[in-house]
């Protein structure tokens, strides 16, 4: 019972975060997705899944990202962060939540297809925890398709948003590079 209550609180926090304006950060837009993609590729070499499953994972990831980006609302502020980059705010919206559900359902389906035992409440709790506390992405082991789909969906989402609003690229650009 306590686990279900904690899960419901997590769902409420996750939903609230998706429905309010939040500052776009390089951590969530680039670093976590890049890490997921690298881990996914590395896990692909170990698992060696059927090519059709890899292609299907990529297609679902790109499709979910497109859906998520379609409903995102972007606001360029007149403020700058401490590094002089423009501050851009993003409301992910309902379509982001729908895309997240597609990704989650696909991950559960892949686990069932590959014969893994799946505890739906546990898996949902883990995914929501990773979305609320982004550092959990680096501490949680996942199968190749979860890493690959997460990386592809997130990087595609960021790419689509930067095409719509080029200032996002400036907002997530690395600063303080040294010349050698």
Overview of the structural elements:
The chain has one domain (2-172). The chain is 66% helix and 9% strand. The protein has seven helices and three strands, in the order αβααββαααα. The longest helix is centred in the first third of the chain and has 22 residues, at 26-47. The radius of gyration is 17 Å and the shape is globular.
Question: How is the topology of this model organized?
Answer:
Elements: H1 2-18, E1 22-23, H2 26-47, H3 51-70, E2 73-80, E3 86-91, H4 94-113, H5 120-132, H6 144-164, H7 167-172
Antiparallel strand pairs: 1-3, 2-3
Tally of individual domains: 1
User: What is the β-strand count?
Assistant: 3
Q: Decide which structural class fits the backbone.
A: mainly alpha
Low-confidence runs: 135-139
Rounded to an integer, what's the Rg over CA atoms?
17 Å
What coarse outline follows from CA principal-axis ratios?
globular
Q: Can you summarize the main beta sheet?
A: 3 strands, antiparallel
* SSE pattern: HEHHEEHHHH
Organism: Lacticaseibacillus pantheris DSM 15945 = JCM 12539 = NBRC 106106
Protein name: Hydrophobic protein
Keywords: Membrane, Transmembrane, Transmembrane helix
Structure at a glance:
The protein is 66% helix and 9% strand.
List keywords for this structure.
globular; 9% strand; 180 residues; mainly alpha; transmembrane; 66% helix; three-stranded antiparallel beta sheet
């Amino acid at each position: 019972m306590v686990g279900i209550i904690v899960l419901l609180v997590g769902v409420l926090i996750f939903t609230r975060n998706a429905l309010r304006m939040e500052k776009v950060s390089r951590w969530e837009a680039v670093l976590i997705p890049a890490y997921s993609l690298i881990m996914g590729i590395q896990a692909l070499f170990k698992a060696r899944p059927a090519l059709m499953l890899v292609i299907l994972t990529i297609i679902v990831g790109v499709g979910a990202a497109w859906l998520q980006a379609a409903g995102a609302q972007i606001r360029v502020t007149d403020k700058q962060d401490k590094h002089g980059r423009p501050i851009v705010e993003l409301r992910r919206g309902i379509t982001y939540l729908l895309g997240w559900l597609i990704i989650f359902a696909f991950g559960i389906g892949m686990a069932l297809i590959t014969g893994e035992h799946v505890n739906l409440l546990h898996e949902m709790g883990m995914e929501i925890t990773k979305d609320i506390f982004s550092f959990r992405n680096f501490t949680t082991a996942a199968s190749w398709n979860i890493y690959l789909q997460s990386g592809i969906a997130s990087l595609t989402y960021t790419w689509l948003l930067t095409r719509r609003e080029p200032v996002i690229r400036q907002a997530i650009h690395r600063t303080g590079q040294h010349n050698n």
